[in-house]
Every structure is written in C-alpha cells, then in structure tokens.
Amino acid sequence: MQYKKFLITGGGGFIGSTLIRRLLKNDDLIIYNLDKVNYACDIRELKKFTTFKNYKHFKVDLKDKANVEKTLFECSPDAVIHLAAESHVDKSIVSPELFIDSNIVGTFNLLEAIRKYWETSNKINKELFRLHHVSTDEVFGSLGESGKFNEESKICPRSPYSASKAASDHLVSAWHHTFGIPISISNCSNNFGPFQFPDKLIPLCIEKCIKKENIPLYGDGKNIRDWLFVDDHIDALLLIMNKGEIGKKYCIGGSQERTNIEIINLICNLMDKYFPEEKPHSKLIKYVKDRPGHDKRYGIDSSLLQDSLGWRPKHSLEESLEITIKWYLEKFDKEVS
C-alpha cells in the first residue's frame, strides 16, 4: 500500500465502514473518518473503530465548509476517498433539497478544501496525493434490453439522487482539469453485504423475512439491477487508488444482473433453508405501486477495470447472498437475546 494516511468521507456508511474495516487490518495505516453520522450509520461499529489507535473520527458535515477545510489540513492525508452521500432514491423524491446540499454542495466544499490544501500546504506529497470519488451507475440513466454502461456512456440521470451524483462527478472532473487536482472516479452497480442499513432492497427483504412481515416489491418486480458484493467493490477501490490512472473513470459491476423479483425469491429460498417451518417465505411478497421514474435496467461493463488493472469479482451472487443473510441472522439473534 503506497498510501499511509487516508481521509474517508462517509466512513460511517455501509461502503465507507466496510472500507475502513479493511484498512484497519493494516497497523501501518492511519485512517481518518469525516462523517456527520446520519440515520444509516452503525453507531456501534463507529465505537468499535475508536478502539484502534490508528483511527480518528471527525463528526463534520460536508455542508460546513470551514470545518471541512480545518479537518483536511489537520489530517494532512496522502489520499482522500469520497464516499459521503445521500443515496436513497425514494428519499430523494420526497426531500430533493437534502441531496442537493449533501451530494453537490458537500462535494464542492470538499473540493475547495482540497484545492487549498493542494495549493498551500507544505505537508502534501504532490507525487502521491489523490482524491478518489465514488459514484453510481445510476448517473447513466436506464438501459433497454441490451447493452451495458461503460466509461463512455452518456450521463442521463432520472432521479434527484442520480442527478445530484452526476453533478458531483462533473465537479470532481472539473477540479481536476481546471485546478490540477489528481483524481479518479468510479461508478459502481448496486452494492450489498453485511452492515447495510435495511432501507435498501436486499437487507430490507432479509429483515422482513426474519420479522415475518410483508416484503414490498415495486411495480411488476421486473426492474433489473447488476449486483456487486461490497467486499469485491472494496477490492476494486483499493486497486484503483494504488494502480489506476489519474483523471480516469472506472466502472465497477458485479456482472450479476437479476430482476428484483428474482433477487427476492433467491433470498426467500435461502430463508426457507434456515427456517423450513416458515416456508415458503415468498408468501410474504406484496406488490406495491411503482415509484416515479423507476429506471428499468442497469448493467455495468467492467472490462476497462478488468483488462487494465486485473480486477475480477471474487464472489458469486448466491455465495455472497448467503454470507449476507447469515450476518443479518446473527445480528438479529444478538438483538433479541
């Protein structure tokens, strides 16, 4: 690992905390977490991180420009990985302003702090420093029955969430071209795995099965997503940080496209195995009114990342779903015991 000091924004979230958990395995690294701590943060995990001497949490909102700058200069990192974002599409439809403030204004404030750090700090190693911006495949809009998104795909967001992320991608790219900030960007497909807050499809479905509650399914359930196990995503991020080309965009996908109803049935079948007396769990599925602007299909072509850097996802969908379900079952057992 060429970097020694990481500043992670959004390190209390699902992907951010998984990244920090991985980095903390290396005692030689120093990890700074800039996170305002919102509803989706796992407070217990954040407390566990504080037991590591090489970890420090700054409870800072990216909207607070002065404190973002102060934190950056105090940490003087070798690398910044920008994961902080509001990411729930439904919430963006109800409260779009929150997404503008967090994903656009917050990214702007971070970029301006980095620009000042880049231009004025005597602690920065300009040969080493990099900002990596983590984004989503949703900025590309919706696919038809064929084709996949890649690094050359047209930006065509269709929800307040994806529009705010597309704007943040453009800002990061502009600060690279205009001010010379060394950056890279990745657009990933739908992540899942342990520690994910249960307002996303997979953990929500698992939780509903455990609690024997109805599993809501939008529309006809035939919307297609490309699923990426979070550990495979972390492998890709660290590979891009260490070997990726400055100024490049990389698409990260699991190459595991499934309809929403297929994903839910896979989970229900696995839950049948653990709780045969409750089967079939598929009886809990309840179709609900589709959400506005619901993208029909996402699919990622990761060939650039695979061919240039040698990344491949290590986990099959079925294997990673089983890992995830076992984690949530153990978590539920601890909560009720």
Describe this structure as you would to a colleague.
The chain has 337 residues and is of the alpha/beta class. It has eleven helices and twelve strands. A seven-stranded parallel sheet has the order 3-2-1-4-5-6-10, sandwiched between helices. It has a three-stranded mixed sheet with strand order 7-9-11. Strand 5, helix 6 and strand 6 form a beta-alpha-beta unit. Helix 1 crosses helix 8 and helix 9 packs across helix 11. It starts with a strand and ends with a helix. The mean pLDDT is 96.
Outline the secondary-structure elements.
Blueprint: E1 5-9, H1 14-23, E2 30-34, H2 43-49, E3 55-58, H3 65-75, E4 79-82, H4 89-94, H5 96-120, E5 130-136, H6 160-179, E6 183-188, E7 190-192, H7 201-211, E8 215-218, E9 224-229, H8 230-243, E10 249-252, E11 257-259, H9 260-274, E12 285-288, H10 303-309, H11 317-336
Parallel strand pairs: 1-2, 1-4, 2-3, 4-5, 5-6, 6-10, 7-9, 8-12
Antiparallel strand pairs: 9-11
Brief rundown of the structure:
This protein is α/β, with parallel strands linked by helices and 337 residues long.
Q: How far from one another are the termini?
A: 41 Å
Biggest pleated sheet: 7 strands, parallel
Share of residues in strands: 15-25%
| Principal-axis shape | globular
- Helical segment count: 11
Which tags fit this structure?
seven-stranded parallel sheet, 337 residues, three-stranded mixed sheet, 43% helix, alpha/beta, single chain, 11 helices
